[in-house]
Amino acid sequence: MDAQEFREAANATIDEIITYFDTLGSRNVVSTVEPGYLRKLLPDEAPQEGEPWAAIHKDMEAKIMPGITHWNHPGFHAFFPCASSYPSLLGELYSAALTTAAFNWICSPAVTELETVVLDWLAKTLGLPACYLSTGPTRGGGVIQGSASEAVLTAMVAARDKYLRETVPPLGSGEGASVTEEEYEERVMVKKSRMVALATTLTHSSAKKAALILGCRFRAIRVREEDGYALTREGLAAALAECRAQGLEPFFLAATLGTTDVCSVDDFEGISAALADHVPPGAPGEVWVHVDAAYAGAALVCPEVQESTRIGLVERFHSFDMNMHKWLLVNFDASCFFVRNREWLTQALSVNQAVYGNKASDGGLVTDYREWQIPLGRRFRSLKIWFVLRSYGVKGLQEHIRRTMKMGEDFAGALKDRSDLFEIVSGPSFALTVFRLVAKSEGASLEERNTQTRALYEKVNASGKMWLTSTELDGRFAIRLVTAVRTTEPEHIQTAIKTLVEIAEEVLRG
Ligand code: PLP
After folding, report:
1. Which keywords, in A-to-Z order, does the entry hold (predicted)?
2. Does the beta carbon of 260 sit less than 6 angstroms from any atom of ligand 1?
3. What is the predicted ipTM?
C-alpha cells in the first residue's frame, strides 16, 4: 500500500466508521455466529502474494462484522461499557502512526511527559487528594496501565515488596548485619508464606487472580446485603483477628468503589479505623489498601459524587485505579493507576539491564515508566486521554456522567412503578440497577423464582435489540442493567422497559 492508496483507504474507512456509529442501533447487539464460524470463512494459510486493499476491505463487512458484539450499541446494558468517542479514536490513530515502545523517557519524551501531565489533570478532576499528584507532597503520581487487573497486580507486587522491606531486617545492617544471603532469602520466603491478601466476596476477580499470579494466600471477606454489600469496619476487624489467630499476616486489601455485581462502595472510614487498630498508619507492616474504582471512578468527575463517596478519605490509602475506557469516553485501554508514593513502585519494579541505560535515566532526571509497570514497552495512550479531556472539557464529562446516571434512575423508577412485576435487588447505583421478577405465587421457592427471572433474562436477550448480564447474590439470580453507553438515549430506556414489561407479564402468566 503506497501513500496515495493509504490516503484513499483511510478516508473511506473514516466515512465508514461514522456511518457505523450513525446506524449502530439497527444492528443486533450481540453477535449470533456459531463458535468456529471464522475458520470456515478464511483460507488455511496466509496468502503468498499481497492482496489489494479492496479485497481485504470487502471481508471486513462480510466476514468480521458478523462476529462483532457491539459494545457501543444503544441497547448495550451488559457488564460495564467499553467507551469510545471521536476524539479518542483520533488519539488512537496518531498513537498507531507514531508507534513507540516508550518505556524510558528518552524513547519519546512527549509520551512520558504528556502521561504525567494528563494523569495529574485527571487526579484533580476526580477530586483525588494531592498525595496522588506527581507534584504532590508525598511524591505520588499516576501511570496508565492496560487494565484494572494489571493495576491491582502491580499494586500487590509493590505492597508485598514494601511489607517485606518493613518486616524482614535488611541484609547487611541492624538485625540483618550478621545474616548471610541464603539466610536472608530463607527469612523472606518464610515471611512470604505467612502473608495474605484480603478482599471481599464482591471484589472483582482480578484481585484473586493477582494473588494467584503472585502465589500468595488470599481471603475474601463476606459482605452482606444489610450493609449494602460494602466492607465494614466490623467485617474487616473480624477478618484481621481471624488472620492473626491463624498466624497469617495481612499485607494488602483490595477495597472497591463500585463493585461489578451491584456497584456498592466499601466503607472507607470503617476500613481505615479497623486498620489503625491492627497496625497504625505509616508504621512498619501496615496493610496496603488499593481502591479499585475501575468503572464507578468515572463518576468522580462530578463534585456531588466526590462528596457522596467521601473520596478525600483515599488519602489514608496507598493506591487508586479507574478505567477511563469504561465510562469516561476514552477507548480501551486506559486504566489510570495512582500511587501515593511512586518509590513504592520503583523500589519493587526497577530491574536494570545495560541495554536500557541512558544519560537522562542514569542522571535520575526523568520518569521511566517501565519501572512503574509489569511490561517493558508501552503505547502512547495519554494522547487519546488528552484529546478527550480537551474536546469534552470537565463540564462535558460531567454532563455525560449525569445524563447516563439519570437514565439509570429513570429506569429504576419505572421498575418501581411496576412493583407488581419487578423487585429491585440493588440500585440504581452509578447507572446500574439489579433486579428480579416478583414471585409468581406466594410461597414460591428460591429455585422457582430464579428459574422465572432467568426465563425473563434469556427472552429479553434473545430479542437481539439489547444485551443484559446477570449475577447471583446469596443464591438469588438477578439481572443487571447498566445505562452508561454514550449512544444510549432515554428513548432506548423506554424501549427496554416496554420489552421487559411485556416479557415479564408473559413469564408470570406462565
Ligand atoms: N474491577 C472492577 C470493579 C470491574 O468491574 C472490572 C471489570 O468490569 C475490573 C476490575 C477488571 O477490569 P479490567 O478489564 O480493566 O481488568
Report:
1. Transferase
2. yes
3. 0.99
